Amino acid sequence: xxxxxxxxxxxxxxxxxxxxxxxxxxxxxxxxxxxxxxxxxxxxxxxxxxxxxxxxxxxxxxxxxxxxxxxxxxxxxxxxxxxxxxxxxxxxxxxxxxxxxxxxxxxxxxxxxxxxxxxxxxxxxxxxxxxxxxxxxxxxxxxxxxxxxxxxxxxxxxxxxxxxxxxxxxxxxxxxxxxxxxxxxxxxxxxxxxxxxxxxxxxxxxxxxxxxxxxxxxxxxxxxxxxxxxxxxxxxxxxxxxxxxxxxxxxxxxxxxxxxxxxxxxxxxxxxxxxxxxxxxxxxxxxxxxxxxxxxxxxxxxxxxxxxxxxxxxx
Length: 315
Prior knowledge:
This protein has 315 residues and is mainly alpha-helical. 26% of the residues lie in helices and 3% in strands. It has helices at 11-23, 47-53, 55-62, 89-92, 96-100, 123-132, 145-148, 153-156, 175-178, 182-187, 224-227, 242-247, 269-274; strands at residues 192-193, 239-240, 257-258, 306-307. α2 packs across α3. The relative contact order is 0.08.
């Protein structure tokens, strides 16, 4: 016999679920407001009845992060009986009408419950954001590029995923991201690259998939995303390289992958420098520099990211 959703989780499992809930920054209590798209019927039937038909989904739910939430504490729109576990209906809405129509396939049977697979783009997201909108990581989602092109929560997350799957992702990074961002797969295959495919870092180490206040959804503003790993380049310096401060690391570097050392945007370092250090568009080269000599600028200007000793970055 299948286990009951409410009472079947062993005490050790409860402890593990609760701990993982904290680690993944998911809510420990039910939301204070109801879901955005509650079904019309005003009665909850309890998850035990849901389990009678949806046994496989119930089994996977028991191993998920969401199973560690006490849904009885929510301020729900309709009365919840004292002995009714609404683990399923907290997200899928009151299920009495759906249950009464079960097996009949009458018109409106599937519409009587919230099925995330059948919701129009954006509506399922609102149901998730009932709980998750107050979290810093998700607060920009409604205005994110993902949301604007119809990529919703269920496209990347599977809420019934077991605790061992980080952030309840439908697939792991970067495979999940490559489904849309195929061009980045090619960049990470170049000879010089950040070790994403090797598993040492992920897309979300640099980007906030739920949106941010910068154009490419970096997890931190400006150069601070890069400085999380490249601390020695962060500064502040007494003599900063203005290009890095004004335009950022990507003025000189390709962030994903490149065919040049140090992920530089130009194979010839001198040509890269000449993009700024060339009259009349920038700072003119000193007279003793020969433009056609193709010397490597960083052989002399060794502290090119900034220096505390020399305004010319020579030490």
